[in-house]
Amino acid sequence: MKTLTVRFKVNGQEFNGELPTDMTLLHCLRELLGAVEVKNGCEKGDCGSCTVLLDGLPVNSCLVLAVQAHGREITTVKAMGSAEGLHPLQKNFIDHGAIQCGFCTPGMLLSAKSLLDKHPNPSREEVKEQLSGNLCRCTGYTQIVDAVLACASESSEA
Amino acid sequence: MEGFDFQSPKSLTDAFRAIAGEPSACKLLAGGTNVVPSLREGSLKPSLVVDLGGIEELKYIREEQGWIQIGAMITINEILSSSLIKEKGGLLWEATRTFGGALVRNRATVGGNLADASPAADTAPPLLALGAQVTLQSSEGQRTLPLSDFFSGYRQTVIKPGEILTKVSFKTLSGESRYAYCKLGRRSAMAISVVSVAVLLQMEGDICKEAAIALGAVDPTPIRALKAEDLIKGKKINSSLADECGKIVAGSVNPVDDIRASAGYRRTLTHVLVSRLICQSLDIEN
Question: Both B112 and B194 in a single domain?
Fold first, then answer.
């Protein structure tokens, strides 16, 4: 096994250690760092359940080698909010029934967050487009898109 | 697994130095959307992986003397966000809209998509129709060749060990350019195309001066449909000529049966889409 010394931040916390070169960022986050909020679905970049923000950009963590994250900042859904202080998107997901089994939810939330951070008032089409890499097998997507749009209109009223 | 050495050079010079030792045992990593799963599954077993992601000199989109130049490490999302590409390379821009999904577009690069050489590579048909050129560089020098000479077989290119695809370039589209693109997949996002077609026509009044028709997923490599192009060059195009064109292309392609579609369906689609896109690009009834 070949390893490299790698340093990056996960939700603001510094990681510094030896990692196998062939380990994906997904495996590193889940198995070494206990970030099990990052879900492992297809491991081929098809499903989006392993979405994280890499320097603010949503990516499939199964398509990134952990050693490629050297010097970068990773954000998981954990940094979005907590049970006591939900992110407005999280609250809207709950209110609109946008969560059923919940497996896609961390990825959906991060993709939606990155959209609203850039475009606070997206059209329905733009929301669907931005979530196109995140699959949900439960909800049929309607409630998810509704939740994102509701969150956008709330924040534009505020 | 034995594992591999990993290097992340910050310049092309350093990248050439990194791959110099044993270039044929080295795998170049661009966006990783295909290579990383292959490394994980073990279907790729290089002794060295060289990540091109840190090489800033491969990340640019610019216009120079009537040509659009795109650095190989530009991501699909960067193309989609580029007003220059939208305005002067609209055919490529159209195709990036249906490339993968939003997440994949943040990683996948134009250089990686071409070097991967899938018959269904989404940037290939528009770039072939645009008459794009690719630049391959090595520590010895560089060569530039038409994209149509770049694909040498199923998932194969003319890139030699030690060479890196560094640039894609094509002439800017003019006001006389008419174009249309269609990717038909099983669904609208995250699909590998069943058939994709790009059509680019240069018009002089009613007459088609130049024609380029390119297809993906119907042959071992992305292809240009030269015979059909010759048929419409110098002519006034109507729907029956467009249909004839579609028929000729459908008769010359070599599609496969696979999980996404049968060869017969792909052939029929080729006929329909070529004809439809010629009409669509000229705003005539199909």
Answer: no
Whether B67 and B165 map to the same domain: the answer is yes
**Residues of chain A contacting B, Cβ within 8 Å:** 1-2, 4, 20-22, 24, 43-46, 48, 51, 57-60, 62-65, 67-68, 70, 111, 129-135
- Sequence letter at residue B19: I
| ipTM of model | 0.96
Task: Specify the amino acid at residue A24.
Answer: T
Query: Can you give the residue range of the structural domain that contains B80?
Result: 57-171
- Block residue for tokens 């059909």: B228
What chain A holds in terms of domains, given with CATH numbers, is 3-79 (3.10.20.30), 88-157 (1.10.150.120)
B156: phi > 0 → left, psi -120 to 50 → alpha, else beta; which? beta
Q: Please judge whether B36 and A48 are an interchain contact, meaning their C-beta atoms are less than 8 angstroms apart.
A: no
**What is the per-residue pLDDT across B234-281, written as a single tens digit (0 to 9) for each?**
999 999 999 999 999 999 999 999 988 999 999 999 999 999 999 999
Question: Tokens standing for B262?
Answer: 């049968």
For B8-26, give the DSSP string.
--SSHHHHHHHHHS-GGGE
Q: What is the pTM of this model?
A: 0.96
Distance CA B138, CA A129 (A): 39
Task: Say which amino acid occupies A127.
Answer: V
Number of neighbouring beta carbons within 10 Å of residue A83:
6
